[in-house]
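Input sequence (153 aa), recorded before submission:
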Amino acid sequence: MKLFLGADHGGFYLKEKVEAYLTKRGYTWEDVGDKELDPQDDFPQFAQMAATKVLGEVEEDDPRAILICTGGQGMAMAANRFRGIRAAVIWDTFEAHECRNDNDSNVLCLPARVLDAPGDDLELWKEVIDEWLTTPFAGAARYKRRNAELDVF
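Predicted structure, token format:
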């Protein structure tokens, strides 16, 4: 599995932590930006880069992306504009499990404001990422049908 990581200024510092964590865990990842902290950058460009990489990665099995911004919603809205992308904003392990098991989520959007708050030493984001990365898609017929319906529009 190859992962594509993207963040705007609101998620930049958490993205750096995620990169180090994924490296330590042996995952292959590519940073699609922003490469340096820029308070004026815009999240849609990073969501677009990650989504197109996920959709265009034919040599990798199960390519996915992790996108981070202040609230996660902007990244999810931008990424979900691409047919074949199933981006979900996740803030706990239950949601991480469900969005993989039922919806075959291929883009994880993390809200830095919630998961990387100053003074918060819980590092819940690690548990969320682990659950999302290790939960397989259940593949039930109803789940496949529902996912196909997302790409009709």
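Checked by second reader. Strands lie at 2-7, 28-33, 64-69, 87-89, 107-111.
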